[in-house]
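From: lab user (bench 3)
To: helpdesk
Subject: output format question, protein + iron/sulfur cluster

Hello, I'm new to running complex predictions and I'm not sure whether the block I got back is the full result or only part of it. Here's what I submitted:
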Amino acid sequence: MQIRLDILRRKSAIDSPYIQSIDFAYEDKGESVATALTKINRSGTVSPISWECSCLQKKCGACAMVIGGVPRLACDAKLCEFEKAGFVRVEPLKKFPVIADLTVDRSAMYDALREIRLWLEKGLAPNEGSLDTAYEASRCLQCGCCLEVCPNFYVGGRFYGMAAGVPMSKLLAQLDKADRQRLAKEYSRHFYAGCGKSLACKSICPAGIETDALMVNSNAAAVFKRLFG
Ligand code: SF4
Ligand code: SF4
Ligand code: FES
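Helpdesk reply: Thanks, we reran it on our side. This is the complete output you should expect:
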């Protein structure tokens, strides 16, 4: 089988972007865009394409990019999905600054977690009632696909999007009322106040996280219980 990859490339953030079309032959239906990028780079037939990956098993979120117009994981995007079209367009995530080719600078996403101080100063006993929420939230890959489709997120804005909303939901469920106060304020300021509840984040999330359910729990814990509880 043969497919054409139309890859949006640029040498660096200041260089002009261009499309490089590369014909790629594959035999296995399990081969993904990640496989193709790896093999193309190994072949040495084009200048090395910059992109990020680690696990190649849909676990780390590093390989998020826009494939066929949709933000998703390159290791989960099978080439055979695009067999009928005969080509697939591969672009970097657009919400983050491009470093080179398909590699973007997602530090704004990590900085948001640091700013919210999403860590514990003391041990936390497991709380039976919060285990389901904690488990669901723990599945977040920090890939940024939800930010790509979110109409309200932009780098530098006060709204930190679902990539921060999901990890916040874990601690909001686990902390008791006294310890929840500071985080509840951060949630209200950096998530609740800016979220339009369109749930584009839920349909795009490659981990299939129930973002709506987490949001309902967090709104109750951080906003309504604080106001009325
Ligand atoms: S919520 Fe889903 S889409 Fe957003 S960063 Fe986590 S895993 Fe990625
Ligand atoms: S519900 Fe809509 S506005 Fe809120 S985080 Fe998800 S995509 Fe963004
Ligand atoms: S390389 Fe880890 S999710 Fe694709």
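A quick orientation on your result: The chain has two domains: 2-104, 107-228. Let us know if anything else is unclear.
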